[in-house]
């Protein structure tokens, strides 16, 4: 698992029952908002781990609260139902992934290298966090409409990489950009569903070529196929 902690830790990357996350019974001296934040974070981490292990259709509130070490009453204090918990985990995690990709992209001097760097960051993140990878790409298909809408918004967030005014890019129809993003998403889905999440970084050359091809052409995109990660 990743060594990240705090705001940059993907949901499911930490055990909800780590000793430092425990709240002592009785007078613990913590403000109510701090206690609520700890409980919410523990529930989100537990949710992702339970869903990754059992699948969303087999996930129950009892399983989540058991993994988090809290009561059902505490769960309902934060979420109306399992979809609400899923939405919180999904929105938090995907924002972190996009943030890492954006920072990697911004550190490169050319658009093509920026795309490669962003893809590298995404693939490395998903490979290091198999729980969140499975929940956000595979189990999300079993979630309710609120979560599925959030997935569409998340995928739309990738459009900015192909319309960056900092580079003189050829205009590409939105449908083409969405098709590129969908193709990358599909490649990740297949690997994760097949139990090959750890091998995701090996896809970097092919996915870089696929993402660049419509904007820079075959001749300029082809060298990226030879650059193994």
Short description:
This protein has helices at residues 32-54, 61-68, 72-78, 82-106, 111-128, 130-137, 145-156, 174-193, 204-216, 218-221.
Q: Give the CA-based shape.
A: elongated
User: Which class of secondary structure composition applies to the elements?
Assistant: mainly alpha
Number of helical regions: 10
The end-to-end span amounts to 20 Å
Number of strands: 0
Structure, described:
The protein is mainly alpha-helical and 229 residues long. It is 60% helix and 0% strand. The chain has ten helices and no strands. The model has no long low-confidence stretch (mean pLDDT 92).
Question: What distinguishing features does this structure have?
Answer:
single chain; 229 residues; mainly alpha; Arc Repressor Mutant, subunit A; Tetracycline Repressor, domain 2; 2 domains; 60% helix; 0% strand; elongated
Describe the secondary structure blueprint for this structure.
Layout (H helix, E strand, L loop, with lengths): L31 H23 L6 H8 L3 H7 L3 H25 L4 H18 L1 H8 L7 H12 L17 H20 L10 H13 L1 H4 L8
Helix pairs in contact: 1-2, 1-4, 1-6, 4-5, 4-7, 5-9, 6-8, 8-9
InterPro entries: Homeodomain-like_sf (IPR009057), HTH_TetR (IPR001647)
Pfam families: TetR_N
Protein name: TetR/AcrR family transcriptional regulator
